[in-house]
Amino acid sequence: MSTTLIIAIVIGAAIIAGLAFYAGQLLYKLKEQNKLIAKKQVEHEQKLAASKAKRNAKLADSIHLIARAMNEEQCEFSEGCLRIWVLISQYSFAEEFELSERYPGIFKMYEVVKDMPTHDARKKYSKKEIFKMDTARWRAEEQHSDEIKADCARIIEEFKAAPGSENVVFN
Length: 171
Prior knowledge:
It is built from six helices and no strands. It has helices at residues 3-71, 77-90, 99-102, 104-113, 127-143, 145-158. It is rod-shaped.
């Protein structure tokens, strides 16, 4: 064999060895980076789950307190249903289901009052129109009262109050 061919083979082998070493380094860095990404993703999911649990606990406490107030007739059904429906719609349940089927009384009352004006918005209407809306609201409260009470009892059982708030007394 000629010396030139041997030098070319040695140089080619050195280049291939260098490229193989470089590829090995890149693969190692990629593996480490994937491990880091997986670790960060797990940490992120844990933080997300913790914040979701904290948010759910606050929502559950509010939902529970409103349901108790409604159950003890310290809060009108129309106002309570409006507030509970908004909060319960934001709650993250473990399994999916149709809220309107699980809490039919609250849903029916919410459907009646959701578009009715409140507070300052009521001032834009005449007394006759306000009385007409109030009459419709009172009729709906009376019509759905048994279902609403049953829903409140279910909610009080399903949504636990935050420690200390279960002793809140409504006067």
